[in-house]
Amino acid sequence: MLRQRAGPIGLPARGATIHIITQTTEDTDAERAFEYWRYLAMPMVDASTPDIAAFTASRQFTALDLGDLLDTRSSAVCIERTRAQVRQDDLDNVAISVFLSRDGRIAQGGDSAAVGPGDIGIVDMSRPFLNSCSGEYRELRIHLTRDVFNAQIGKLDSMAGRNFAAGSPLQALFVGHLQAYVAGLPEMSAVEANIGFEGVLHLLQHALGRHRPDGDIRARTVRDLAEAMIRRRLHDQALDPNEIGKALGVSRTRLYEAFAETEGVAATILNARLDATRRQIQTARTRSIGEIMFACGLTDATMFSRAFRRRFGMTPSEFRKLGDS
């Protein structure tokens, strides 16, 4: 079977360690390697390879506060995301790819571009696209949600489906910095890895010529990033305004100012968790309400029931019975 190793990597003395998941076809029968890889690493796309019998691949996956990082080494493969798949999973992420070896091609929305080593390709995963590589390759890929991309990098609509060819000094600096960051990840704590990832995104913004003229993070940007973090870490019971402020590197005052037009940071976290529990109560019929509550970062059953009633006009149990009728 495919081997998937997950474990803490880093120095415990510096706090919580970053987790790197390694996926590989190394121990898989040759005739089944591509089938397993397609199931494990490419479940949201159609994939093909010119030589199934010789296919090999490995990937290191790191989940960070603002996005995901993937380091993939693989035989030649062609990936297509269809309209049916887009409708089915409603994914709203952006993929930023840097090929370190071998040429490839990206196509989206009628635009098609060759991608060479050191180029930066950007794909909107909420729309159909086609990616291909002509031989064995290594790719570093960053996955961001749309709101994080818009806040940190620039407007996606003007960049989706485009290839930014290598050549500018800043782009070369970004590619080199990204490689150094990936190489150093196994020695980093979670805090260090997230700080480093913010630096990667900052350099990417400048490499693509999307520098913000005000030179400072605006209130709307703070709110966008905070909301993205809330969605990613709903399950984390430790997530609170202080944790968000530390992760974004902004003061408590700046964070609360960013949410001045809403019910507040804590209320935004609670409402997001309540919305998630409501969706799961409706769809995960075999899971108990208590399991769903804990999975969404809530621990006080009485408070949860009261807050759910206040937001939706009925208790969680009443809502589930409504769905059963």
From TrEMBL:
PANTHER family in alphabetical order: ARAC SUBFAMILY, HTH-TYPE TRANSCRIPTIONAL ACTIVATOR RHAS-RELATED
GO MF entries: DNA-binding transcription factor activity; sequence-specific DNA binding
A Pfam family annotated for this UniProt entry: HTH_18
Domain HTH araC/xylS-type: 224-322
Protein name: AraC-like DNA-binding protein
UniProt keyword terms in alphabetical order: DNA-binding, Transcription, Transcription regulation
SUPFAM superfamilies: Homeodomain-like (SSF46689)
N-terminal signal peptide: none
Organism in which the protein naturally occurs: Hoeflea marina
